[in-house]
Amino acid sequence: MHRFNWIVAAALSFVLFISAASAATGAPAESGHVAWVLTASALVLFMTLPGLALFYGGLVQAKNLLSVIMQCFAICCVVSLIWAICGYSLTFGGTGAVLGNFSKSFLAGLDPAVAPSNLPEIVVAVFQMTFAIITPALIIGAFPERVTFPFVLAFTALWLIIVYIPVAHWVWGAGWLASLGTLDFAGGIVVHTTAGVSALVAAILIGKRRGFPAHFEPPHRPGMTMAGAGMLWVGWFGFNGGSALAADAGAASAIMSTHLAACAGALAWIAIEWVRSGKPTCIGIVTGCVAGLATITPAAGYVHPASAILIGALGGTICFFATVHVKQRLVIDDSLDVFAVHGVGGMLGSVLMSVFAAAALGGVGFADGMNFPRQLGAQVLAILVTALWSAGVTFTLVCGLRAVTGLRVDAEQEFDGLDFSTHGERAYDYAG
Fold first, then answer.
1. What CATH number should be reported for the domain holding residue 126?
2. Which band of pLDDT confidence, cut at 50, 70 and 90, is reported for residue 5?
3. Torsion-angle region of 313 (φ positive above 0: left; ψ -120 to 50: alpha; else: beta)
4. What angle do CA 166, 172, 178 make, to 5 degrees?
5. Does the structure show a pLDDT above 90 at 18?
6. Is residue 328 part of a domain?
7. Residue 295 belongs to a domain
8. What is the DSSP letter of 203?
9. Whole-Å CA distances, 107 to 86, 210, 211, 337
10. Domain count of the chain?
């Protein structure tokens, strides 16, 4: 494990060194922007592999660890190929109101320089690919330990094409929501709302884990989850900071906002947990951290870093009670709290952005023709449309795939664990 940590640290240090060197040798400004966005792309991929894989893997039972990591790896492979074949083109090719076109299929015809930083379009395609990878990977946290592997593969491919790509085009690809003034700096709507709402619908349709909620199985390795959360935290600097698409003060402000919101969300979560249960937990602090990160994501580049503290604290607080409500009141087995943390956090941050982006509060101010009521309206409309689209398509996909791939493994396979019953491997030697 120590050797692995040194390898990861060395790799990241090398990438950051190359980025700094390219900007410091007197190269044109565009070279520094390219180096930063490529570094950010590596950081966002690092969020999924190994960050999210370890974060989720530590939360499940030991006999399902490999299945979760396997799903993250497979999703990365499936999404990357679809993105190169047609995903990028349908998202960013053309300016149609609803969807792009196939003009950039197989990454053909990419521009040598695109605004705002004269980046080669291939750099933008790489960066956006890593966002497309992590979004469906987030969803699997709603139904680990009980679904078939063919379902995961088929659902990922279809969901990416029918949900993620259209919404990304509406908001980021000059689609109809963008034309109404909707803002989403790094994915509160495109990533977290789509994934969170879809996760909730899928969890309801797939059903609860064996024994839920009466029989509680605690996370088998909280330390692994904390390590994965640390990777997510660092990777989020690329997620939000890279979304500036430039190595400039805007990226630095987004990173500072990201960091402060994560800190505030983590402390808010364990403060509530401490009061309610008498103990602040490792799982609590990392979940609060992720809640703060999800909540600041749509606003990171638009608000002052001081505002990010309040946004993160609100994210940690509201997501905490959302988690309790979903699990205990609604008794929905969204196993790793995808909706309550990512969905609620992303929607909350998208609304709060319209408040804290105001110039009077240190934000970047509203675009021409926009003011607080209009911006708020654009954000709420985008959230509602995205949530309804994600829920409707996910409902249809899960019901349709039930007959094609099946949804759940049988009771015996679930008892044995998916590591062995699905993949024929075991992470640990254990009984039962």
1. 1.10.3430.10
2. low
3. alpha
4. 95
5. no
6. yes
7. yes
8. H
9. 8, 44, 47, 35
10. 1
Tell whether 366 is covered by a domain.
yes
| CA pair distance 421, 419, nearest whole angstrom | 6
Token pair 């039972």 is found at 61
* Residue written as token pair 């080669």: 120
- In this structure, the chain runs to a length of 432
The 10s digit of each residue's pLDDT in 323-362 is 999 999 999 999 999 999 999 999 999 999 999 999 999 9
- Residues 6 or more apart whose Cβ sits within 8 Å of residue 124: 37, 92, 114, 245
Residue owning tokens 């330990």: 145
- For residue 394, is it within any domain? yes
| Tokens matching residue 389 | 């689209």
Phi-psi region of 422 (alpha: psi -120 to 50; beta: other; left: phi over 0): alpha
Tokens of residue 93, six digits: 């090719």
Locate tokens 């370890």: which residue?
A: 54
Q: 25 exposed, middle or buried (CB, 10 Å; 0-12, 13-18, 19+)?
A: exposed
194-215 burial by CB neighbour count: b if 16+ within 10 A, else e? Answer: bbbbbbbbbbbbbeebeebeee
Q: Which two tokens stand for residue 264?
A: 């505030």
Cβ-based neighbour number of residue 269 at 10 Å: 30
What range defines the domain where residue 92 resides? Answer: 32-423
SS3 content of the chain, % helix, strand, coil (to 5): 75, 0, 25
Q: Which long-range contacts (CB under 8 A, 24 or more apart) does 83-89 make?
A: 83/125, 83/128, 83/129, 83/132, 83/133, 84/129, 86/161, 87/129, 87/132, 87/160, 87/161, 87/165, 88/125, 88/128, 88/129
Nearest to 134 by CA among 348, 267, 294, 309: 294
129-158, pLDDT tens digit by residue? 999 999 999 999 999 999 999 999 999 999
- CA–CA dist 342, 266 (Å, integer): 14
Across the chain, what does the average pLDDT equal?
A: 92
Question: What pTM did the predictor assign?
Answer: 0.92
Measured CA to CA, the distance from residue 99 to residue 164 in angstroms comes to: 11
